[in-house]
Amino acid sequence: AKVKVANLREKSQAELTQTLDTYKRELMDLKVQQVAGAAAAKSSKIRDVRRNVARVLTVLTQQARTEVRGQYAKKKYIPKDLRAKKTRALRRALTKNELSRKTLRQQKKEDNFPIREFAIKA
Asked: 0.90 cut: is pTM over it?
């Protein structure tokens, strides 16, 4: 009864919401049967259906996020939930461009006093 995620990814958004509704209805029916005092085998079935619901919801959210990512691809700012998580320190670290920049004074110093090269090593 386990649904394959690869099969879910092929479906459209409307089909996914439809399958989600069927799984939720099935889950409600199983819970009613459980309260009524059905066999213990139903509890494992409930677990499977709950997992299937989770799989469908996961695929739905992933599809929605990829759509939104596409919209923000060429923009300067990206919503925080779409940005790379990393760590707090890494997010605040200087970029490669910022690290490579030099002050005017440092540039003049390097131009006027290049590192001297000697023919003989001590």
From this structure: no
Structure-token pair, residue 116: 């001297």
Return d(Cα 19, Cα 24) in angstroms, integer. Answer: 9
Rounded CA gap, 84 and 70, in Å? 15
CB 50 within 8 A of CB 26: no
- How do the residues of the chain divide into helix, strand and coil, expressed in percent and rounded to 5? 70, 0, 30
Other residues' Cβ atoms within 10 Å of the Cβ of residue 24: 15
Per-residue pLDDT reduced to its tens digit, 99-114: 999 999 999 999 999 9
What angle do the packed helices 13-36 and 41-71 form, to 10 degrees? Answer: 160
72 SS3 class: coil
Provide the CA 101 distance to its chain's centre, in angstroms.
32
- Are the C-beta atoms of 45 and 1 separated by less than 8 Å? yes
Cα 9 to the center of its chain, rounded Å:
16
